[in-house]
Design goal:
The complex is a heterotrimer of chains A (206), B (791) and C (103).
Chain A lengths: L3 H5 L1 H15 L7 H23 L3 H21 L3 H26 L11 H24 L15 H8 L4 H22 L15
Helix pairs in contact in A: 2-3, 2-4, 3-4, 4-5
Chain B lengths: L2 H27 L1 H27 L3 H7 L4 E6 L2 E5 L5 H26 L4 E2 L2 E2 L1 H20 L3 H19 L6 H32 L4 H13 L16 H16 L8 H4 L5 H10 L1 H11 L6 H24 L3 H22 L2 H28 L17 H15 L2 E2 L4 E2 L2 H17 L10 H7 L19 H4 L2 H4 L17 H5 L2 H4 L6 H4 L5 H30 L6 H6 L4 H19 L2 H8 L18 H6 L6 H12 L1 H13 L4 H9 L1 H8 L4 H49 L2 H23 L6 H22 L3
Antiparallel strand pairs in B: 1-2, 3-4, 5-6
Helix pairs in contact in B: 1-2, 1-5, 2-4, 2-5, 4-5, 4-11, 4-15, 4-26, 4-27, 5-6, 6-7, 7-9, 9-12, 9-13, 11-15, 12-14, 12-15, 13-14, 13-24, 14-15, 14-17, 14-24, 15-16, 15-17, 15-26, 15-27, 16-24, 16-26, 17-24, 17-29, 24-30, 33-34
Chain C lengths: L5 H21 L3 H25 L5 H31 L13
Helix pairs in contact in C: 1-2, 2-3
The chains are: A mainly alpha (206), B mainly alpha (791), C mainly alpha (103).
Chain lengths: 206, 791, 103
């Protein structure tokens, strides 16, 4: 059977949701338009995530991931975290996903070999994930969450975020830059062709 | 920053610049040039530190306070402010000077040492790497010395560990060297785990990682009767504060090679000999003692006792093992461990000043001896076995003489009546004197009045009184002492027993009234039984006889007697580039015993004014400080101590020469006569084997047990149930419908088999299974949170 | 139901988390596992932003999410580099074959 609809579904839905979200962002909390927008985007997000779970083709999984990432970005917009939404789209959907797709292309030369899990594993995973979901949702619904502060939360503007990044969160910020540098070097090192001198121990020894 | 701080910070940064330069351009600089760049860097650093020392000694008390400008805010974590700054006090200045001076000598020596070494691997020279690492090492060590916060200290601490790994494994193509490097690194990690947990405790309980800030908060917490000091709030009957101190000390256990983490240091002799001198004698292992000195204000009496006991065990084990070692570097390694044990013992019993003084003198003479052994090894074509040496004094007169200076210094040689002595004569004996006091001293003997005259008559504390008095009088310390110290101690008469511990600051201040001691009842007692304190004195004294024995043995076997291996003997030679540093260090050994070093360390004790648990800050010179602490030292008894250890070195030397004077024949007979003991010592008390069995074997056994459980119990159950159902089906098949029952039985069998397979699956090392188990565990917790709780 | 509150977002995030876990545990392709991890990370990030929006923590949650995105990018880069190496060594991308370290 074909699951082509799975990865064709997200794109038009994304477009529709984004149009709605643009309206909904400015509306008050009880606005039905915003609720509809949320449910639509949520459907897209969870739908794509489920698509990820169901798909067996790795390329389809990547496409479904795009749907989820986009959906999450729209959710950020809905929560008036505009800067984060933009960053999510640029870095995640634009950068990380491309990296993943490259990874797929570099490692999937062995066509025809299907890597399928054993049914037992699928069953166990379903049970565990289902139980976790049930537990989480039960906890969430039973918890008495404090009400949102009056007047809504602060707008996630670039200025506000930048200000807190360079004051309160300076250390993590610097750490993150160091980490990124390390990652660049590490990734370049890991992916380089094996040195001819390192012949011993580099081979696939069992 | 004040000029002195600028000198120090620049002195730290120059080796870093050297490191960067060598790391990028070292390969192009080539063989001798790269080494000289490193020498230049450290020499500049040494010059700056000399200038800082000079300026410092010419400042008055107010000027010194003004010279310290920090701390500066570095970053904020929540509401905790992290600061950086130069921990500018006398101890920092003198440590900085010691490290740079010894490093300079060692770097120069290294240029000579490495000249004769082949250093190509796969046709790529790694000569410059050696000096690159050396520069990085010095940078880390100097940063550690000037760090004024535990966080900065920890960072440099780890850097030092990294450098030791790189340098020990310099000959990484040799299996033994790379293994030794890993052993050093991993053993240090074990200690650092404790250190970082202790750091976390400091952060959680005191909210301040700067040394001064943490000490102040610690004192305030004590004054406020915080639960931090309540044994009931901690584990195993020890208060959280005690645990904090002990865990912080764990870092020092690793780095200073204390029992039970001492096993890495002898193996670390796989590195080039200058590295052994730099890391394993003068600086890196000193870092542990330095750390202990810095965190001393955070140690409760129980934690101090822990430090002392660890030090005592270490010095005993190491001294005994050193007797039978035949590798010249291993003898030195074990003697290093033993001396570090003395320092830790000194820290633990409260001889803060003496321990640090011993650290400084030891740094000189141990670097001297290591470089001497490097000269010997280099000259003898990489022969390290002392049994094949002998008679080398003809070939290496300078090395022989300077090595003898080191031997005399470590043995504590001196003439008690004339206050002439070397290194250990002053520093080690002072540690022992304080240990004596903790074991036998009393508070009520009223020695305060007689103190001055007795001290005059006593050989131990003469230094600085004679014509060699330093520029800076230790009496300056008065100006730093807070008013609370100067008050006479309160209710010492109420405390009984010689080893009773004091809380001088708390005793002498009105804080005592604000919380009348209910919570402190548990702290007022002396930790540990009396016999333990006596052992902490007696055992080190006995070992003070062993030290001269094994050092003289090493010296005699190497340089004296007749040559035992003519191949080695004919080859022996010495080169000026290598023996010049030896001469400098020998002079340093003399100088450090008399001038400058001890007074400056004593001034460094000023920081102790905030410690609530200051048990004893023994200083024979600064009488005021001593009395303010309410611990009058029984000087009359210390005169008795001089005959006890004052001639230990003579006895040790005579014994060594008696046994080894005529070669190895007598020693071999002795070894045969004492076969079990000799074997025990030769195997270093079987610590490596023990760890091999307990740790490696433990993991293997755990694996075997779980595998066995899997194979026999789980599989057995599965098989058994399968068997039982089969038997049952065979029986019931006769009576019931064959097909139905068979199907059921097969079904059950299959399910149980699959279950068995499921249980076995965790062993196969697949990532996804681990994720599944992790998720499953979380699911269980979440489900419990959702449904399991009683509402 | 028409007033969207904190719970809605949290439930959505929980669903994303479970999808991600399912993907991580059932896909044998290593890149698939990475995709699952990305889903889990997104779920966490969504939680943080929702708490920032409906809680009293101000912008802290959004900053944390920013770090999550950065870390996820770093993680993906390193993971892909490892997988490329893995593929080069084992000539497969099957994560189950990577069990040579087992005792």
């Amino acid at each position: 059977m074909t699951r082509g609809w799975l990865y064709r579904l997200p794109l038009p839905a994304l477009l529709a949701a984004s149009a709605l979200a643009a309206d909904g962002a400015a509306a008050p909390a009880a606005d039905p338009g915003k609720a509809v927008a949320f449910y639509l985007v949520a459907a897209v997000t969870v739908g794509s995530a489920l698509g990820c779970a169901i798909a067996t083709n790795i390329v389809r999984m990547a496409m479904c991931l795009l749907g989820t990432l986009g959906g999450v970005a729209l959710l950020y917009f809905l929560m008036s975290a505009t800067f984060l939404g933009v960053i999510q789209l640029i870095v995640y959907a634009g950068g990380t996903l491309i990296v993943i797709v490259f990874g797929v292309m570099l490692t999937s030369r062995a066509y025809g070999v299907k890597l399928r899990p054993r049914p037992v594993e699928v069953l166990a995973a379903l049970v565990v994930c289902g139980a976790l979901l049930v537990g989480l949702v039960a906890v969430l619904l039973r918890t008495d969450w404090p009400a949102a502060p009056a007047g809504g939360a602060a707008e996630g503007t670039v200025a506000a975020l930048g200000g807190s990044l360079l004051s309160v969160y300076l250390v993590p910020f610097e750490l993150a830059s160091v980490l990124l540098l390390a990652v660049m070097i590490g990734a370049a090192y890991l992916a380089q062709p094996a040195l001819p001198t390192a012949g011993d121990g580099a081979g696939p020894e069992e | 920053m004040s000029p002195i701080e600028t000198y120090l910070v620049t002195g730290v940064l120059i080796p870093l610049a050297g490191f960067v330069l060598l790391a990028f351009l070292g390969g192009r600089l080539g063989k001798p040039a790269a080494g000289w760049v490193a020498v230049l860097a450290i020499a500049a650093s040494c010059g700056l530190s000399a200038k800082a020392l000079w300026d410092w000694t010419h400042l008055d008390a107010a000027g010194r306070l003004a010279a310290r400008t920090g701390p500066y805010e570095w970053a904020r974590l929540g509401d905790t402010v992290l600061t950086v700054g130069v921990n500018l006090d006398s101890l920092t200045i003198i440590m900085f000077f010691m490290v740079t001076l010894i490093s300079t000598c060692i770097f120069v020596f290294s240029v000579g040492y490495m000249a004769g070494h082949s250093d190509e691997i796969d046709h790529v020279s790694k000569y410059h790497r050696f000096f690159t690492y050396l520069c990085l090492f010095d940078f880390s060590m100097l940063l550690l010395v000037i760090a004024d916060s535990l966080l900065l200290l920890f960072i440099s601490w780890e850097l030092v560990g990294l450098c030791s790994y790189l340098l020990i494994g310099y000959y990484f193509h040799k299996k033994s060297a790379s293994t030794a490097a890993m052993k050093a690194f991993i053993t240090n990690r074990v200690g650092d785990l404790g250190f970082i947990i202790g750091l976390g405790l400091v952060f959680v309980h005191l909210h301040d990682l700067s040394l001064a800030g943490a000490a102040a908060k610690f004192r305030d917490a004590w004054a406020a009767g915080s639960p931090l000091f309540d044994p009931a709030a901690g584990l195993l009957g020890l208060s959280p504060a005690t645990w904090m101190g002990m865990l912080l000390f764990c870092g020092a256990i690793g780095k200073s090679a204390q029992f039970p983490l001492h096993v890495w240091l002898p193996d670390a002799m796989e590195g080039p000999t200058p590295v052994s001198a730099l890391i394993h004698a003068a600086t890196m292992v000193a870092a542990g003692v330095y750390l202990t000195a810095r965190i001393f204000v955070l140690l409760t009496p129980e934690a101090q006792l822990f430090v002392a006991v660890i030090g005592c065990i270490t010095l005993t084990l190491a001294a005994l093992v050193a007797i039978v070692q035949t590798d010249i570097k291993k003898v030195l390694a074990y003697s290093t461990i033993s001396q570090l044990g003395y320092m830790m013992l000194g820290m633990g019993v409260g001889a803060w000043i003496a321990a640090l003084f011993h650290l400084l003198t030891h740094a000189f003479f141990k670097a001297l001896m290591f470089l001497g052994s490097g000269q010997v090894i280099e000259g003898c074509h990489h022969e390290q076995d002392m049994r094949k040496m002998g008679g080398l004094w003809r070939k290496m007169p300078v090395t022989c003489a300077t090595f003898l200076v080191g031997v005399l210094a470590i043995a504590g040689a001196g003439i008690p009546a004339a206050h002439i002595g070397l290194g250990g004569y002053f520093s080690k004996d002072e540690i022992l004197a304080v240990a004596w006091h903790r074991a036998y001293g009393r508070e009520d003997h009223g020695a305060a009045q007689s103190h001055g005259s007795v001290a005059q008559a006593n050989g131990l504390w003469r230094m600085g009184k004679g014509p060699t008095a330093p520029e800076v009088s230790v009496a300056d310390i008065d100006q730093f002492i807070p008013a609370s110290w100067a008050q006479p101690p309160g209710e010492h008469a109420s405390e009984s027993g010689g080893a009773a511990h004091h809380r001088p600051v708390a005793d002498a201040t009105p804080r005592e009234e604000t919380h009348p001691g209910a919570a402190q009842a548990g702290h007022a007692r002396a930790p540990g039984p009396r016999w333990l304190w006596i052992a902490l004195f007696v055992v080190p004294v006995i070992m003070a006889y062993v030290t001269p024995f094994y050092m003289m043995r090493a010296w005699w076997l190497t340089f004296m007697g007749r040559p035992r291996d003519h191949h080695v003997y004919d080859h022996a030679h010495e080169s000026p580039l290598m023996y010049l540093p030896l001469v400098v260090l020998a002079i340093g050994t003399f100088v450090s015993s008399y001038f400058l070093f001890r007074p400056l360390v004593a001034e460094g004790a000023v920081q102790m004014s905030t410690a609530p648990f200051l048990t004893m800050l023994y200083d024979g010179e600064a009488a005021t400080a001593e009395h303010a602490h309410g611990v009058p030292i029984d000087h009359a008894a210390h005169r008795a101590l001089v005959p006890a250890v004052g001639f230990a070195f003579v006895i040790g030397f005579v014994l060594a020469i008696a046994i080894y004077g005529r070669g190895l024949a007598l020693a071999t007979k002795l070894a045969a006569a004492l076969r079990p003991l000799h074997t025990l010592l030769e195997h270093k008390f079987y610590f490596d084997e023990l760890y091999g069995v307990v740790l490696v074997g433990g993991v293997a056994a755990l694996r075997a047990v779980s595998y066995g459980f899997d194979k026999y119990v789980v599989d057995g159950l599965v098989n058994l149930s399968g068997l039982l159902t089969r038997v049952a089906s065979w029986f019931s098949g006769v009576i019931l419908d064959q097909g139905l029952v068979d199907g059921l039985v097969n079904g059950v069998g299959r399910v149980t088999y699959a279950l068995g397979g499921l249980v076995r699956r965790p062993q196969v090392g697949r990532v996804r299974n681990y994720i599944l188990f992790a998720a499953g565990s979380v699911a269980v917790v979440v489900l419990w949170a959702a449904f399991g709780r009683v509402k | 139901m028409l007033t969207i509150g904190l719970t809605h977002y949290l439930v959505l995030a929980a669903a994303l988390l479970c999808c991600g876990l399912y993907v991580m545990t059932t896909k044998r392709n290593a890149v698939g596992i990475l995709i699952g991890a990305e889903l889990v990370l997104n779920a966490a990030a969504l939680n943080l932003v929702a708490f920032a929006r409906y809680g009293a923590g101000g912008l802290d949650g959004q900053v944390a999410t920013l770090f999550v995105i950065v870390l996820a990018a770093a993680e993906a880069a390193i993971a892909i580099a490892i997988f490329v190496n893995y593929y080069r060594v084992l000539a497969t991308i099957d994560a189950d074959r990577g069990d040579t370290l087992k005792g």
